[in-house]
Design a protein that fits this description.
Distance between the termini: 105 Å
Strand content: 25-35%
Structural class: alpha+beta
Number of helices: 1
Largest sheet: 5 strands, antiparallel
């Protein structure tokens, strides 16, 4: 027959081993929960920063009231209407820098074409102005 003290000692050692494993599992679970909580705190901080940026954008002043136009570059802002205009076939004797400088600004530009090849028999050029604006009518 087994010695009862020895038998109890073995069971006690087995119970201690299971308790140690359970404690290790609890420590690992606690660490995972701590990591998850830290990640959630970072997300809350990110959301707070985003809310601050949105509030700053919402508090920006609106376009002033009145009737005016601004040069268009892309889509017109809310409350503005797009208006396009063109003047073509502007007769020019020369196209050098003293008379003409080609420019693009937003969706508008100044450009030119050669009519007659720019030779001695037809040394003239045609300029062109294309304007695209966004206008507010309030």
């Amino acid at each position: 027959m087994y010695n009862n003290k020895w038998y109890l000692a073995v069971w006690f050692m087995i119970a201690l081993a299971f308790a140690a494993q359970a404690e290790e599992g609890l420590v690992q679970s606690e660490q995972r929960l701590t990591n998850d909580l830290d990640a959630l705190r970072e997300r809350v901080d990110d959301l707070d920063a985003l809310r601050t940026r949105v509030q700053a954008l919402e508090s920006r002043p609106a376009w002033p009231k009145g009737k005016y136009c601004v040069f268009r570059s892309g889509a017109c802002p809310a409350g503005f209407s797009q208006i396009d205009g063109r003047m073509a076939a502007i007769w020019m004797y020369r196209k050098d820098g003293g008379y003409y400088t080609p420019k693009d600004f937003g969706n508008s530009n100044f450009t030119w074409h050669n009519n007659g090849g720019g030779n001695a028999s037809a040394p003239y050029w045609h300029g062109e102005i294309n304007l695209s604006v966004c206008c507010k009518q309030q």
